[in-house]
Write a structure and sequence with these properties.
By secondary structure, the chain is of the alpha+beta class. The protein has 2 domains: 157 residues, Uridine Diphospho-n-acetylenolpyruvylglucosamine Reductase, domain 3 (2-Layer Sandwich); 95 residues, CO dehydrogenase flavoprotein, C-terminal domain (Enolase-like, domain 1), CATH 3.30.390.50. Helix content is 29%, strand content 25%. The strands form 4 sheets. Strands 4-5-10-6-7 form a 5-stranded antiparallel beta sheet. A 4-stranded antiparallel beta sheet has the order 11-12-13-14, sandwiched between helices. A 3-stranded parallel beta sheet has the order 1-3-2, with no helix packed on it. The chain binds flavin-adenine dinucleotide. Flavin-adenine dinucleotide binds next to strand 2 and helix 6.
């Protein structure tokens, strides 16, 4: 590691002030950032730990909206019963150590192309709340490891509209436990949203053809005749682009069947 300072603010306002130093970086659960620092792949001047910011902890329900604090760990989301598909997703992130340190804000800020929460946020039409603004999920994810966050901006909460039915299917890459392909399907009164993670070189994306078909007929058979192009899908030692494209349809069908 390189040398850096550490600050532990107690409020969002203090955290925002602490982040105003050049090359300061937020620290959530450290599940991604600490290994990166150990490998000397990042050299922040200061880490601003968000763990002590009480306003960013916990989960609350207001009507049909679930609001999750940005520093809330995956294990807490897994234990919350109001949005069962989201809880199940959180319950299958990594292993117990990852789930008891990693945070939803850290996961969404990192936007790993194989991470699970981006699929849930995009399929749910969630709102990413920061210390300065609210960003619709449709505008937030901008490509692999790329988001709409500005320098120093902190995810303070995420708001999820709770759907009528939803399910997340993850085809697990067994060594990392990330998604080789993951599909989150969410059915709302005004239509169905389908978000895919793990598959594309552009990061998480919506499969709009499936959304149209499923909005008319919420059944796996509605996907008959649809296919996903392997163009711009990830090819690596775990699977080819063609394999991933095939998996997108398979996992979408499974998610719809499970949600129904
Ligand atoms: C073995 C292992 C298995 C895993 N398996 C999965 C899996 O199956 N599915 C999955 O989705 N993920 C998986 N993960 C990733 C895990 O979910 C981490 O929690 C996630 O990558 C980052 O969250 P974190 O809180 O640890 O963030 P950190 O590592 O602390 O930070 C990550 C990045 O986000 C920034 N950041 C952190 N918090 C905020 C915030 N509130 N606002 C703005 N920026 C912020 C940091 O500056 C840094 O750039 C796995 C990780 C490991 C180590």
């Amino acid at each position: 590691m390189y040398n850096f300072d550490v600050e532990k603010p107690g409020t969002i306002a203090e955290a925002a002030t602490a982040m105003r130093v050049e090359d300061a970086q937020a620290l959530g659960g450290g599940q991604t950032l600490i290994p990166t620092l150990k490998q000397r792949l990042a050299g922040p001047s200061k880490l601003v730990s968000l763990k002590g910011v009480a306003e960013m902890q916990g989960i609350s329900k207001d009507g049909n909206t679930l609001r999750i604090g940005g520093a809330t760990i995956h294990a807490a989301v897994a234990a919350e019963g109001s949005y069962s598909a989201l809880a199940a997703l959180a319950a299958h992130i990594g292993d117990p150590a990852v789930r008891n340190r990693g945070t939803i804000g850290g996961s969404l800020a990192n936007n790993d192309p194989a991470a699970c929460y981006p699929a849930a946020a995009l399929a749910s039409g969630a709102t990413i709340v920061t210390n300065t603004r609210e960003i619709a999920a449709d505008d937030y994810f901008q490509g692999m490891f790329d988001t709409a966050l500005d320098e120093g901006e902190i995810i303070t909460a995420v708001s999820f509209p709770i759907p009528q039915a939803a399910n997340y299917q993850k085809f697990v890459q067994p060594a990392s436990r990330f998604a080789l392909v993951g599909v989150f399907v969410a059915k709302y009164t005004d239509g169905v949203r389908v978000a895919v993670t793990g598959a594309s070189n552009e990061g998480v994306f919506r499969w709009t053809e499936a959304e149209t078909a499923l909005s008319a007929n919420f059944s796996a058979t509605a996907l008959d005749g649809l296919s996903v192009s392997p163009d711009n899908m990830i090819t690596d030692l775990h699977g080819s682009a063609t394999y991933r494209a095939h998996l997108v349809k398979v996992m979408t069908g499974r998610a719809v069947t499970a949600a129904s």
